[in-house]
């Protein structure tokens, strides 16, 4: 398999992962976690293992235990992926500046 094909496959897979992430909502805020800016990065290696680097709105977030598990399970539902790892980080800490324009508009911040 050429590198060009692999690059296209992982790019398409990345888009599929983002579509899945946009179906997951923070229970306290009516905006999906992607638009909320909670997803810092999505990595996919050549073995089709995905790693998602994300944060929470605060370290004391009530869904700190369940949200990463939900992200992992929903992304794992993509057949092309072999494994999914979700890593939580608070560096940098989440701020409202990380939200998309769409999320800010939804929450009346614009």
Descriptive terms for the model:
110 residues, alpha+beta, GMP Synthetase, Chain A, domain 3, 3 helices, 3 strands, 16% strand, Fe-S_Maturation_MIP18, MIP18-like, FSCA_dom_sf, MIP18 family protein YitW
SSE-based structural type: alpha+beta
CATH superfamily: Fe-S cluster assembly (FSCA)
Q: Per the principal axes of the C-alpha atoms, what is the gross shape?
A: globular
CATH topology label = GMP Synthetase, Chain A, domain 3
Radius of gyration: 15 Å
Describe the biggest sheet? 3 strands, mixed
Low-confidence stretches: none
* CATH 2nd-level architecture: 2-Layer Sandwich
Tally the helices: what do you get? 3
The total strand number stands at 3
Average of the residue pLDDT scores: 90
What number of domains?
A: 1
Domain MIP18 family-like: 15-88
Organism: Flagellimonas maritima
Protein name: MIP18 family protein YitW
InterPro entries: Fe-S_Maturation_MIP18, FSCA_dom_sf, MIP18-like
Please explain how this structure is put together.
- By secondary structure, this protein is of the alpha+beta class.
- It has a single domain, classed as Fe-S cluster assembly (FSCA) (GMP Synthetase, Chain A, domain 3), CATH 3.30.300.
- The chain contains 3 helices and 3 strands; from the N terminus they run αββαβα.
- A 3-stranded mixed beta sheet has the order 1-2-3, covered by helices on one side.
- The protein starts with a helix and ends with a helix.
- InterPro entries: Fe-S_Maturation_MIP18 (IPR052339), FSCA_dom_sf (IPR034904), MIP18-like (IPR002744).
- This is MIP18 family protein YitW.
- It holds the Pfam family FeS_assembly_P.
- Residues 15-88 form the MIP18 family-like domain.
């Amino acid at each position: 398999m050429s590198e060009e094909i692999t690059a296209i496959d992982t790019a398409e897979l990345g888009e599929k992962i983002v579509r899945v992430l946009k179906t997951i909502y923070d229970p306290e805020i009516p905006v999906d976690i992607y638009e909320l800016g909670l997803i810092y990065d999505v990595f996919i290696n050549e073995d089709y293992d995905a790693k998602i680097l994300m944060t929470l709105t605060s370290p004391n977030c009530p869904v700190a235990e369940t949200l990463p598990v939900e992200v992992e399970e929903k992304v794992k539902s993509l057949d092309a992926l072999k494994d999914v790892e979700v890593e939580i980080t608070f560096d940098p800490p989440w701020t409202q500046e990380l939200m998309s324009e769409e999320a800010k508009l939804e929450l009346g911040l614009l």
